[in-house]
Each structure stands twice: as structure tokens, then as C-alpha cells.
Amino acid sequence: MAKIVLSGYYGFNNLGDEAILYTIVRTLKEIDSTLEIVILSGDPEKTRREFNEEGINAVNRWSMLETFRAISQCDLFISGGGSLLQDVSSSNGILYYLGLLWLVRLLDKPVLIYAQGIGPVVKPRNKRLVSWILNGVNKITVRDHDSKEDLIKLGIQQEITVTADPVFCLYKHKVKEKVAEEIFARYGISKQESGKLLGISIRPWHKNGYLPPLGEALRQMAEGGWKLVFVPMQFPADITIARELAHLLRDYDPVVLKEKFSPLEVFSLTSQFDILLGMRLHSLILAAVTGVPMVGLSYDPKIDRFLRQIGQVALFSTEHLDAQRLVEMLIWTDEHRTDMLKGIEARTQVLYQKAWQTARIAMSMVEGSSGK
Which end of the chain is more exposed for a tag (fewer CB within 10 A), N or C? Predict the structure, then answer.
């Protein structure tokens, strides 16, 4: 029975990363149901509860003994997906993931970089470390062409395969609409009675200077008959910032969903929106896979990269947000939803196939390792 160790930003209540974890595990197990998967998690008990099935386990990522034992027994070490190799949101987080890769190399275990988004890597020290460590791994896959270019600029000479974010594997997953209906009911939202639903996924960023123009844009949308629904992707930080914005809009009865949701719950919720306005990358990816028009608010290059990948133009940065232009874009998106969704669906189908390609690469590496 082959064993994989899976490392990422797991167990920290970030729905984007938990959706990545869910889809990686599900695609690998769909290919080989006998596969053993050990997840390095910040909250191993929670991760074990969420999967709660034979062949899937979680250990404490901060325990060197548990981590060492898991890696020493594996047939493949997977690092990813997400944006693990960057030093903007955390200057030292990158050292943890590079340190793990160094340990895996010492133990002579095969390594797959799994559909990661790379960068920005700013510190010269970190640039040198990324180049040194990644030139020693077995296989590198990234989720977009810009990430490949970034690695080449950092001096990576290994072959780099461009695939897609693992969450695109949800594209053909059946949506359970009743899940969203039950959540909406708890907050007094009725799709039949509330009019058009505008889903909003925002995050804290720097001094949150984007809130006043965003609040003005949302005020105009609410006056135009849109129901504003805030969906947290990082618990509890996104709830705090959503409440701050909702307070500015209190005359329009916005709703902040104040729960810690599972990836499949947010998958269902997203499918019910008429438009998704998102800062969080995976709020936008979930909109794409559920066929919901989206407008992105860019705070990081990964948002611009995704929007280009899906065939849209990155128009709105949180640094210089113009309320009126944002309103015009939201209205335009609503009016042109049919044509927009045709383009998004065509590209999502391709990205779905590429996301599955990463899983097949992983399994081919497992077969090669266990066959030694």
C-alpha cells in the first residue's frame, strides 16, 4: 500500500487551502482508493475529523518527531498547492516549507511540487534558498505560466509543468443546492424573495484603505436591489473585516455569514450567487467552477494571474479602488453574464483537465517509487 505525505497551509481555517486539500485528497483517492495519505496539519485533530475515513491521517506539522516519522515512511512527498513559496504575507513562512523540502531530500524521498502559485519572493536570501532547494526536487508543477516564469528567473533549471489549481477538479462535482438553502435559511435569506444575490469575499489587507470606496460601490448596488452577502474564507479574520464594512452599510441590511464553513458548504453557497465579488483567490475559483460571473479585487499578483487565466482583465486594485468604475463593472457583468459564462466555462474545462493532470503525475511518481 503506497503512502503519500501531503504538506500545505492546512488546519488554519483558510477555506481556500482547505478546498485545495479536499480536492487533492479526493482526486488521488479516486485514482487509487487504497492509497494512504498523511496530512501535515496545524490542527491534526480537526483535519482527521473532517476526513474521518480509512487511509487518511493527519499529524502535527509543528512536531519534528511526527513529521520526520511520516516522511521517513512515505513513497512520495507532496508540497502544495497554494502559495507556499512567497515571503509577502509572511516573511518566514517560506522557510518552513523550504526546510521540509530540505529534510525530504536528506531522507532521499521523491518530491512533487503540486500546482503551486509561486511568489512574490522578495528577500535575496529566500530567492537563493528557493533556487537551491527546488533544483533538487524530482518534479515541479505550477498553477499558471507566470509562476513558471518566476521560477526560471530564480534560476530553476528543472523541468516545470504548468497545470492548474487543484480546486478546478470540483468543476464536474455535483452541487448540493440544499446545503446553501439551509445556510441561507439560518440568516433569513430567501433566493426567491431577496432579489439578486451579490456574494462578497474580502480580507484584511494593510490598513484596509479600500473599504470606503468599496462601501460606496456596495451601497449603490444595494440601492439597485442587490442583496449583499459576505462569505468568510479565512476564519475569523474575514468575519471581522466583513462586519466592519457591513456596519457602514447597515441601512441596507447586509448579511455576514458568521460561521466556519467546509469547502463543500462554500462550494454550494457560491453556486447560488448571481455575481461573486472577491479578493480571496479561491472565492473566484469556486465561482468559475460553479458557473457564477465574478469580479476580482486584486491585492496580490495571484489574483491578476487567475483573472487572465480565466479570460478576464484585472481592472480593480485595492490600492486605487474607484467606486463608480466598480459599480459600472458589476452592472456590466450582470448584463453580459451569458457571454461571460460561455468564455469562463470553456477555459474552466481546460483547467479542469490540467488539474487532473497534476494528480496523475503524482500517482505515476508513487508507482515509480513503490516499484523500486
Answer: C
Region 176-200 average pLDDT: 93
- pLDDT at residue 370 above 70? no
Tell me which amino acid residue 201 is: S
What pLDDT is stored for residue 49 in this prediction? 95
What CATH class does 3-170+352-370 carry? alpha beta
> Which residue in 171, 149, 106, 126 sits closest to 355, CA to CA?
171
User: What cell was used for 327?
Assistant: 459599480
Q: Which three cell numbers stand for residue 259?
A: 460561521
Q: State residue 91's pLDDT score.
A: 74
State residue 204 phi and psi, 5-degree precision. -65, 140
Same fold for the pair 3-170+352-370 and 171-350: yes
Q: For strands 36-41 and 3-7, give the pairing.
A: parallel
Q: Is the pLDDT of residue 360 over 90?
A: yes
Report the alpha-carbon distance of residue 326 to residue 347 in Å, rounded: 24
346 membership: H or E segment, kind and range:
helix 337-370
State the angle between helix axes of 281-290 and 15-31 in degrees (0 to 180), rounded to the nearest 10. Answer: 50
CB-CB contact of 40 with 10 (8 Å): yes
Question: What CATH topology corresponds to 171-350?
Answer: Rossmann fold (3.40.50)
Q: How is the chain split into domains, by residue range?
A: 3-170+352-370, 171-350
The helix or strand, by DSSP H or E, that contains position 76, with its residue range, turns out to be strand 76-82
Q: How far apart are CA 366 and CA 77, in angstroms?
A: 9
β-bridge partners, 6:
39, 78
User: Which residue in 5, 156, 141 sits closest to 67, CA to CA?
Assistant: 5
**Cell numbers that stand for 107 in this block:** 531522507
Measured CA to CA in angstroms, residue 308 lies from 162, 196, 284, 344 at distances of 15, 26, 12, 11
Which residues fall within 8 angstroms of residue 224, CB to CB, at 6 or more apart? 331
Cα 221 to chain centroid distance, Å, stands at 27
CA-nearest of 105, 108, 77 to 4 is: 77
